[in-house]
Amino acid sequence: MKEYLVKFFVNDEPIELRVPANRTLLSVLREDLALTGTKEGCGAGECGACTVIVDGKAVNACLILAPELDGMHIETVEGLAKGSQISPLQESFIEHMALQCGFCTPGMLMSAESLLRDNPHPTRDEIKKAMSGNLCRCTGYKKIVEAIEAVAEKGVYDK
Amino acid sequence: MRVVGTSVERLDAIKKVTGSAQFADDIQFSRPLFAQVKRSPYAHAKILKIDTSKAEQLYGVRCVITGEYYKKRAGLYLEDKNFLAVGTAKFKGEPVAAVAAESKEIAEEACKLIEVEYEELPAVFDSLDGMKPDAPLIHPDLHTYKVAPIFYPQKGTNISHHYVLRKGDAEKAFKEAYKTFDNSFYIPHVQHVPIEPHACTAQYMPDGELCIWAACQSPFAVRRALAETFDFPLNKIRVISKAVGGGFGCKAGTTLEGIVIPLAMLCPGRPVKLTYTREDEFQYAYVRQGLHIRIQTAVNKDGKIIGSKNVLAWDGGAYTEYGVNIVKAAGWGCVGPYDIENIATDSYCVYTNHPVGGPYRGFGMSEIHFAIEQNLDMVANEMGISPLDIRRINGIRPGGVSATGQVIDVAGYQECLEKAAALIEYDKPCEPSGNPRKVRGKGLAGGWKAPSMPTDAQSSVIIRMNEDGTFILLCSCHDMGQGSDTVMAQIAAETLTVDVSKITVRTGDTDHTPYEWQTVASRSTYCAGNATKLAAEDLRDKILEVAQIKMGTWKKDLYLEDGYVRRVFYPDIKVPISTFALGLMLPDQSGIAGPMIGVGSYTVPNNIAADIKTGLSPKPVAFWTMGVNGAEVEVDLDTGKVKVLKMVSVFDAGKVINPQMYEGQAEGAMVQAMGTALWEELKLKEGKVMNPSFVDYKIPTFDDMPELIVEVVENAEPTGPYGARGIGEIVMVPGAPAIANAVANATGVRFTRMPLMPDVVLAALKAKK
Ligand code: FES
Ligand code: FES
């Protein structure tokens, strides 16, 4: 398999890697970089567990092929907290108990983060729509919606 | 109470929001090997020959095994299962060989090179067919299998368990009845669909020690089953379970472990890893069993049910080592939370050539209540009684009697019913949709569930005090999202009168955390919770024992408060508990006693097996949790689409330990129930799973979320820790029938089969016209 040299950024850290053409961003994150916060729930773009923010947009890491990475800025769940200071969104998830098993949580957080950056005060319908690619089997979604609404209300993402 | 009953933050919350919680597939190993599985393309076939030579020669392959390598059968209640098929393959996708290789790609390639010759055999794809006398036999040697003494496999048939219940005189009741009813239902297979797929790694060391890291709910049950199958003494096999990304039952028994262990044993020192893909997960993980159920009901003039006859034919799949217990549990719960004097029930576990059935949230209750609760509405409608009234008339009350003859002292059913009916405003018509082609309706359904476990299932907990007065709580009930770590910490904190932040909980390592039978059955808050309370009390007593020397009084004058030992009569005289963490130093500097460790062991008292002939027992289970769901739906008459607008949940939790986590359980359960009611079915065609992806097997998404309302009733469980009983499963049970009842009320059409897919609904609406 042909290998590519790619240079990109993960949570602001520069990375240089040789990767075969068929590798996905998800496997590069989890296997090469041991950033296992990003999860694989389906490997096919159907569950959102692998959601990361690439150049400001929420995407499924399982659908991006490694050779495309060159020059990209990638944000993963590991980059949300600043040191041991968790972000207001993470705090809101905890406060509203918007997680149970936590396997969907990294993807949920990244989708919500991306939504709130674009739209600091989304309506409930906008939240549901933006998050509808993220599956959760535990919570029934209500507390996740509430966590997002609460952090938006605080004006944390106001531009 | 200071901690119990408050919404303290989840212990694992920060780990989970920062991506630092470690799940089974996240663990990094050095020099791992990757396993892959060769599977049967036939639902039922004799394996004539397996040629692994080409696979073995492929560069990077380390070992290849077939079922011949380890032929011993395994099973939790009935030893009927091989991890790799021996002699015959009994379902489509059954593992027939496995490979360990240096990369996933090589392992996959090697599997393709394995050549298997089969002779296809006639197969069984329906439980009713499987019960016929001329049905092909799937386990011809069934009668020779080792089985727990409470299950009764029928020699020369596909029936691996037949539970018989005979209470009172059902025949007589039917003769005397004012009216009788006969309704049948079908509940198809569904998948659990945790977002984390199964994952497992095994490493066998040259000194004979075996370590397994698995996404697993029940490390001790898994350890025992694997030790027996692979001939390990229990001190040489260690099962570690990290964070589990949802279980709902499918991570309860042994699954992938039995495939990777023999591979690991052939490659000492190398960790061998296998993680299911989503497609694997849909096809090869335990499924919720299919069910044909027939309910006959005898009613007197006033709507009182005087007799009930039930036949349950469960599609257990190719192996029923776990499924037999679901069949029994369904027998015990067969009439739901209703007090009926005369009952005759037969519950059959039937082998088919379908994927293997196993525990799923509800453990048979979700399936049978889909029928029980619709049947009640159907009877009520025929009798001209409201569905609410028929439940008032027949719903169990304190002192009522269960199907097996158990007297139910604490029964909050009626309270739950009234509250749920009020919340959904059952007596009021729905707000109009504003579109004549969209009709609305409301439905109610009740349900109950007990922990179905061996009568002597055990739990144990150890609490160690650290030098600074903080604690490490060790237990093996496993947090898979339901929140057991936090619950145990709250119970311990309550008893020790300290803040939850002082308690760290460690679980899931059979070498280091104490025995726990399984994390299933909604038993953890109750069983492990009781063990936690006992451990904390033991620790408290040990502290007071030493404190009486230090404080110059006897221990009855001492108590714990806020991390201090205080005197009853002089509460201002206090000594921090940390003083006693390592025992006590006397004035001459000599030490007495020693490090403080509290131990709690708990077995449910006086649980008694059911009689083989009548199925009766005065106390087969520790407790019954009961309650009611309500639903309001809107049905689009042009598309057949059902939209759930609102669901309400009211259950008798005994005592809610953590209200916010309770709500989370109830909300998640309602949405999961809605999924099964409206869309979820594992479509099987001649044993093949036709929809193994999220695109073809829809689970609920954000878009589908109805308005969710959760309330509780708290009638304390006398034997539960701080009055609590288990709730994790029951909160899902009546959801699907509540929706089906609402759809029937909206449209006048009854659906006796789930799910209520738009095409099914539309066809039924057309047929009605
Ligand atoms: S793993 Fe990428 S969408 Fe499911
Ligand atoms: S919290 Fe378990 S999948 Fe969302």
Spatial strand order of the main sheet of chain B: 3-5-1-13-10-11-12
CATH topology tier name of the largest domain in chain A: Ubiquitin-like (UB roll)
The set of bound ligands, ions and cofactors reads: FE2/S2 (inorganic) cluster
Record the strand order, biggest sheet of chain A: 2-1-5-3-4
CATH-derived topology of the largest domain in chain B: Aldehyde Oxidoreductase, domain 4
Count of DSSP-assigned helices of chain A: 5
Shape of chain B: globular
Explain this structure.
- The complex is a heterodimer of chains A (159) and B (769).
- Chain A is of the alpha+beta class.
- Chain A has two domains: 3-79, Ubiquitin-like (UB roll) (Roll), CATH 3.10.20; 88-154, [2Fe-2S]-binding domain (DNA polymerase, domain 1, Orthogonal Bundle), CATH 1.10.150.
- Helices cover 31% and strands 17% of the residues of chain A.
- Chain A contains five helices and five strands, in the order ββαβββαααα.
- Chain A has helices spanning 25-32, 88-95, 105-118, 124-131, 142-153, and strands spanning 3-10, 13-20, 51-54, 57-60, 73-75.
- Chain A has a five-stranded mixed beta sheet with strand order 2-1-5-3-4, covered by helices on one side.
- Chain A starts with a strand and ends in a 6-residue tail after the last helix.
- The relative contact order of chain A is 0.16.
- The model of chain A has no long low-confidence stretch (mean pLDDT 97).
- With 769 residues, chain B is of the alpha+beta class.
- Chain B has three domains: 21-121 and 204-271, Alpha-Beta Complex (Aldehyde Oxidoreductase, domain 3); 290-453 and 609-768, Aldehyde oxidase/xanthine dehydrogenase, molybdopterin binding domain (Aldehyde Oxidoreductase, domain 4); 457-603, Aldehyde Oxidoreductase, domain 4 (2-Layer Sandwich).
- In chain B, the strands form ten sheets. Chain B has a seven-stranded mixed beta sheet with strand order 3-5-1-13-10-11-12. In chain B, strands 7-17-16-15-8 form a five-stranded mixed beta sheet, sandwiched between helices.
- In chain B, strand 18 and strand 19 form a beta hairpin.
- The longest helix of chain B has 27 residues, at 524-550.
- The radius of gyration of chain B is 27 Å and the shape is globular.
- The model of chain B has no long low-confidence stretch (mean pLDDT 97).
- The chains are: A alpha+beta (159), B alpha+beta (769).
- Bound molecules: FE2/S2 (inorganic) cluster (2 copies).
- Residues 40-43, 45-50, 60, 62 of chain A line the site of one FE2/S2 (inorganic) cluster.
